[in-house]
Amino acid sequence: MVNVIGGIGLFLLGMMMLTNGLKELAGDALKKWLNRFTGGTLSSVASGTVMTILMQSSTATTLLTIGFVSAGLLTFAQSIGVIIGANIGSTSTGWIISLIGFKVSLSAMSLPLIGLGVFTQFIAPRDFKTYGGIVTGFGLLFFGIDVLQKGMETAQDSISFDSVTAATIGGKLLLILIGIIMTVIMQASSASMAATLTALFAGAIDFEQAVYLVIGQNIGTTATALVVAIGASVAAKRTAMTHVLFNVITAVIVTLAAPLLISLTKIITTAVSGSFDETIGLAIFHTLFSIVGAILFIPFVKPFARLIERIVPEKENALTRYLNPNIVSVPAVAIDVSFKTLIEITKELTDALLQMLAAKKVTEKYDKRLNAVDEAIDKTRQFLDSIESHSSRDRQKHIELLHTIDHLSRLTRVLREKEMLESPYVQQKLTEKWIDVFVDMKVKLQDEEELKLIETILQNASTEMAAERKQRREEYFERTVANETEIEVAVSKVEAVLWIDRLIYHYWRATARMNHYTALNNTKR
Length: 525
Description:
Layout: H1 2-25, H2 27-37, H3 41-55, H4 58-70, H5 76-89, H6 92-101, H7 106-123, H8 129-155, H9 169-186, H10 189-202, H11 207-220, H12 223-229, H13 234-256, H14 258-273, H15 278-297, H16 301-311, H17 331-359, H18 364-385, H19 392-415, H20 418-421, H21 424-444, H22 451-481, H23 487-521
Helix pairs in contact: 1-2, 1-8, 1-10, 2-3, 3-5, 4-5, 4-13, 5-13, 5-15, 6-10, 6-15, 7-8, 8-10, 9-10, 9-11, 10-11, 11-13, 11-15, 12-13, 13-15, 14-15, 17-18, 17-19, 17-21, 18-19, 19-23, 21-22, 21-23, 22-23
């Protein structure tokens, strides 16, 4: 049993390293892939399938999908197709193990991979260390299967499924329950599938027992999504519920039609391999399970989406609606989501300023909006702090956003100076000269491609305001000396000019940093 537990542990460690490496390496590619290939239901299914095959984890794909929907990169209807595809893609693990795992010496193949991967992580440049993690993950994954296989050969006497027969309804339900528990404990359907295939190969269980374990494992894999959805956004809850309903409904139908599917599996396996190979047969059954679910759900994606939307109704979106912890593991996407949030914060600040100027006073609503902005800035800062940017471009984009947050924080402090906001000198100056600049900026912020123009407009405004500040400051004090105005009036006017200067400057620097970000984002690797 020690080897069985150790083999599962090595498999899970390898899977974790492989998945994390691929997510980090393919962050930008995943985002572009989703934007390009998730237009319709079939293309969404294909995207989910390919993503899961690449990452070897349907759970990872599901969690990323939840994050992408929350980030606005995917619509909810598109996410349903991706989840269907993820279930199809998850069957690739069974194929790899059944076709390779029991046919070649995995230890002879895995140990060199582990050595090469670890060596690469130690000596390679920073941008290439991820490749070492991926190679190490592959090696550990295969080594774990090898250890698990040897452990099953010696432990099959102590692991008895003789009393849990698949010939009775109670036995079938118990096997399904065991499959659910296996996946919940291991937190990976791939690992539980590997354990089931190894037990089948070692003779610890028979083919029909393995079939019902696989059905349970497909239900158990939804547990992670359910946990992640607790306290998460509406989009996350909807996507998690989609995953649960899809897998549970498919499992019920496959269980009822199991005898037919088992017979079909045996026919296909015999046609493929010339005889009935049980491990290949289990991989085929797992694939049929997912294909049956896809056939059932694809024609009804839109009605199914509307049903879920009614079950989990939409709530008012907050400024931080895009910030989902599930996408932190994909730095390129998490950074892009942070950028979108900062755009929303800048829009809200500008809108609050314009409404205050229209009302000509600071209202309770204005204070509440600034409080919401302060909270959003803090959450965005914390979100950015949790991202580990490894590639040089991601690090530079990360830095640009931190500079943006710094200027937006300073901007909110400027906008909280109530005595200045209610000053007639500020109101008159902003209304007469600069109000059109802020109105124009608010309109252009709707299109991120206009950031370059916004930066230019605000840079010119800041330069002009800086020159005016120097000139007017001197003029106001000269008038005071000449007894043409009172010192209190001159000081108030100077403070008003300084306040407007700070306001425009921080707007300019924040948008300049965001424009630098978009320039980096559009630069090819």
